[in-house]
Design goal:
There is one protein chain. The longest helix is centred in the last third of the chain and has 24 residues, at 300-323. The protein has helices at residues 29-41, 54-63, 95-101, 176-184, 204-213, 223-230, 242-254, 268-280, 282-295, 300-323; strands at 2-4, 15-20, 46-51, 70-72, 84-88, 105-110, 121-124, 140-143, 162-166, 189-192, 216-220, 235-239, 258-262. An 8-stranded parallel β-sheet has the order 1-4-3-2-5-6-7-8, sandwiched between helices. Strands 10-9-11-12-13 form a 5-stranded parallel β-sheet, sandwiched between helices. β12, α7 and β13 (258-262) form a beta-alpha-beta unit. It contains 10 helices and 13 strands. The chain is of the alpha/beta class. The chain folds into 2 domains: 2-149 and 299-319, Rossmann fold (3-Layer(aba) Sandwich); 162-295, Rossmann fold. The two termini are 35 Å apart.
């Protein structure tokens, strides 16, 4: 992995730029899925990350194990962008105008219809949307949970008396302790992710092992919820804000999760009631896992990779025609 503040202009046609932001308040789901996508694209092009904040850059530097990745300084001026640029932003940002001014082809990744922009390709893997995408003949749109970039599905093993509590890697991870105390009172053993800030995060091996063996999960309604559903983990979805509540409600209405509502309004008795249902209602568990995996089949990464490869091919054709 290389870190740099300088612009490199050689072999730009074989490079993909990824612009992303993440941090304790935004969460780290955007950066995590960008890393997944980057790892899957290294055989097609070299990857240049453009983090928009120092917290995002620090996370990328600590998490990116591929030496082919270049991670720019968060304060560096963004110029000489590669011909193909991917953005994954929760909020609108002026950088999208810079992409068009520099003539790069733009693929944008979204959640819930947020941060819409004038991209050539938009991908939104959410189960629902707060804002619909207007019809645009100049933009290709790929929407629905089949396009959510998830981890490789984990094979479920014989369940233990553990409950996987995962509330993301940002400030929301701090709420896991109170939920753990409620779970302990039911005679179950809570296993929590520890977030990316203030403590050593759970290793990927621990994460996979816990997903494979837990009785069920209690999860925030962010990107990790999609990972759990793709791996057939029965899940109680908890929302930390109104945005997450839309996701939790949508999956609940489809029959893929139990929705516990907003965490700030969740009483210990209500949570324990949901947990007991997970322990005792086998037909419910069967339905949750089947519907969840049908909605989120774990193939979103491969679908998005194919879309990116096509865009990369188009940019190379445009350069060829320009040269002629």
């Amino acid at each position: 992995m290389r870190t740099s503040t300088k612009s490199r202009t050689s072999n730009l046609e074989f490079r993909i730029g990824i612009i992303v932001d993440a941090g304790p308040s935004l969460g780290y789901g955007h950066a995590v899925r960008c890393l997944r996508l980057a790892n899957a694209l290294t055989d097609a092009a070299s990857i240049v990350f453009y983090p928009l904040s120092e917290s995002c850059r620090e996370f990328l530097v600590s998490s990116a194990t591929n030496p082919k990745f270049e991670i720019r300084d968060s304060q560096a001026q963004i110029d000489s962008l590669p011909p193909l640029v991917i953005t994954d932003l929760r909020e609108s940002h002026g950088i999208t105008a810079d992409i068009h001014r520099q003539g790069s082809r733009h693929l944008s990744i979204h959640d819930l219809g947020l941060a819409q922009c004038r991209s050539n390709v938009a991908i939104d893997g959410s189960i629902t949307r707060l804002f619909p995408y207007p019809e645009d003949k100049k933009r290709a749109l790929f929407a629905g949970p089949q396009y959510m970039i998830t981890r490789e599905p984990v094979a479920r093993l014989k369940s233990k008396d553990t409950v996987f509590i995962t509330f993301g890697g940002g400030s929301t991870a701090n709420f896991a302790q109170k939920i753990s105390e409620d779970v302990l009172e039911l005679g179950l053993r809570p296993v929590t992710t520890r977030g990316f800030v203030g403590s050593a995060p759970m290793s990927d091996e621990e994460f996979v092992r816990t997903m494979a063996t837990c009785r069920f999960a209690i999860a925030g309604a962010g990107t990790t919820l999609y990972d759990l559903l793709a791996s057939r983990v029965p899940t109680i979805a908890v929302a930390f804000d109104r945005l997450q509540l839309r996701t939790a409600d949508a999956f609940h209405e489809q029959g893929a999760v139990l929705c516990a509502g907003l965490l700030e309004r969740l009483s210990p008795s209500a949570l324990k009631g949901h947990c007991r249902e997970m322990l005792e209602n086998k037909p419910l568990i069967q339905r949750l896992t089947e519907v969840g995996q049908k909605l989120v089949d774990g193939k979103g990464l491969s679908r998005v990779v194919e879309i990116v490869r096509r865009e990369l091919w188009l940019t190379s054709r445009e350069k060829t025609f320009t040269a002629c």
